[in-house]
Amino acid sequence: MNIGIVGTGYVGLVTGACFSEMGMNVTCIDIDQKKIQMLQKGEIPIYEPGLRELVERNSKKERLRFSTSLADVLDSLSVVFVAVGTPPGEDGSADLSHVLEVASEFGKNIKKYTLLVIKSTVPVGTSQKVRQRIAEELERRGEKIEFDVASNPEFLKEGAAIKDFMSPDRVVVGVSTEKARHIMEKIYKPFQMSKYRIIFMDIMSAEMTKYASNSMLATRISFMNEIARLCEITGADVQKVRAGMAADTRIGNKFLYPGCGYGGSCFPKDVKALIRTGKENGYQMKIISAVEEVNQEQKKIVFLKLKKALGTLKGKTVALWGLSFKPETDDMREAPSVVVANLLLEAGAKVKVYDPIAMEECKRRYLGDKVTYAKDIYDCVQDADAMALITEWKEFRVPSWERVHKAMKGNVVVDGRDIYTPSEIQAAGFDYYSIGR
Questions:
Q1: Is residue 266 annotated as a catalytic residue, yes or no?
Q2: Torsion of the alpha carbons at 273, 277, 283 and 285, rounded to the nearest 10
Q3: Which of 15, 48, 145, 357 is 20 to 30 A off residue 409, Cα-Cα?
Q4: 304 to 102, 312, 339, 365: CA distances (angstroms)
Q5: Terminal alpha carbon distance of the chain
Q6: pTM for the structure as a whole
Q7: How high is the mean pLDDT in each 10-residue block of the chain (437 residues)?
Q8: Structural domains of the chain ordered from first start
Q9: Burial of 257: CB neighbours in 10 Å, binned 0-12, 13-18, 19+
């Protein structure tokens, strides 16, 4: 089967590489000529464990190709997946301009039945707009060519995207015809040999499933962060509370870890878009609105703890361990580290940072030269008045606290992810602050 993937960002590139690994012929398409040239040379524009090897292997076998033009390759394709960005506007609405541009290009150039699959995260009703745009282009051409539109939202976790795609816990597919269903079943069957978990539904329900799923996970995070703040006030220990909650099989232990807020490309954008969808349909999403509000406040928690511990921040040096919104990615979109660093800088502090992967991304797109970039965790804490853990990378889990203590000028440690044992850190001579304990 010949498949096209429009968009070579995180979702598009992972999707294309994984389909080609299963023996399908895939062409990844992007209007960014520089990015396509990089990929043709074997250079990967994003960091994701295992992705480089997958792209290199399938490019060599000529199952994975790259192009800057959908029109040039459309005749050879049976299915086109749309994986372009849908960035949020100031009002929280998703920008569908790139998706609709692909729909226009598709409508202008198809010559035979082709299935267009929307993998980009889009609001409920987008597929109808896409179908209408394609129909309008065909009408301008005076052509009557059969096509279908389907919805296939992605549920990839950054840092584990290859595993998630190759062994999905479920594949959600929205279709409106049996022909489209048959094609999608054929594409995903190789990934479902041991457990068949393709869930077919109508298109609008598939679109809603993506937003509802991510918003539920975000809700659990914000709920635990609220519980953590109440635990601090009352004297309870949120980690013990979490363990007691997680033992209930109706609740479980996933996404119940308190911290300094969620970030990334999915949760913040999808929560805002769901709130906006409700508003556009005359319904106030009260719970989801509160989830967003709690998360924005939680991103400031590390700064507030540093301010409380140090009294004044002016002239103080603060070391931040971790910049990406989560481990195993260089993605800093909506990352708590950016909020904390900017608040510290506004308060007159000097900020030193270290992250195993995300420092180039940070310098290029977020903090520039406003902060000092360290070569490792110990260089980062050298002469620092305080250290704050922001991202729970593995290499931060068991540092030499003796070495950290000797390097630091002060003795304040703020654990923004609750990964350390309080008694151990305190025994090493630090004033230790965590979330909800």
A1: yes
A2: -20
A3: 357
A4: 45, 11, 12, 25
A5: 55
A6: 0.91
A7: 95 97 97 94 90 95 96 97 89 89 98 97 95 98 97 93 91 98 95 82 97 97 98 97 97 95 93 93 96 98 98 97 96 97 98 97 96 98 98 97 97 97 96 96
A8: 2-201 (3.40.50.720), 211-297 (1.10.1040.10), 299-433 (3.40.50.720)
A9: buried
